[in-house]
Design goal:
Length: 229
Amino acid sequence: MVTQTIDRSQVERLVRQMLSDRQAPQESRQIRPERHNGGPNPLLVNVSARHAHVCQSDLETLFGPGARLSKLKDLYQQGEFASEQTVNLVGPRSRLIPGVRILGPVRDYTQVELSYTDGVYMGIQLPLRISGNHENTPGCVLVGPHGVLDLRQGVIRAERHVHMGPDDLGHYGVSDGDYMKLRIEGPCGMIFDRVKVREHPRVKLEVHIDTDEGNACDLGSATRMELTR
Ligand SMILES: [Zn+2]
């Protein structure tokens, strides 16, 4: 009698193969045409698809000792990039999200940013947070080609925000932490309240919304955008 056994490492290898064969459903952060807003800089509104940031030690857990993020493409903000590396997420109900892209450069912490739609699918109650605030946030499992990371906290839905340098803060008359309104005109036009101002001295003016928000206003068909206090 022939018996066939399959061990855990074979299962893991098969799952990884299956997942890596699938195309990631969304790319991170599409750059859209510039919209002039009467200020010192053009107003850009970009959608952040689900993505992860990683610290060096977690990167090595997932991709092997000495792993480095390799650049797939630059993002709009200087020095930031979509990496070639992706991970698979596993939630508490064993639901999978494959091909979640890591955005570089490496950070001091590991963080996963998902939409509420992703959270419902995964069975994770996502807290609404500004990047880096991980107090009382849930975790999930990240599966890379080299290893598995059981992230204890750092899974969030990013609070919508606008990156601003000093010139734009002056133009709009706002300061770091203030909330603004973003008006999107077009067939699915709408006004977003509570767009949080995030100041950085060397940043380019850019609004980040997630895929739920981008789809709700059908950003691709927008004819005009405006940021107001
Ligand atoms: Zn941002």
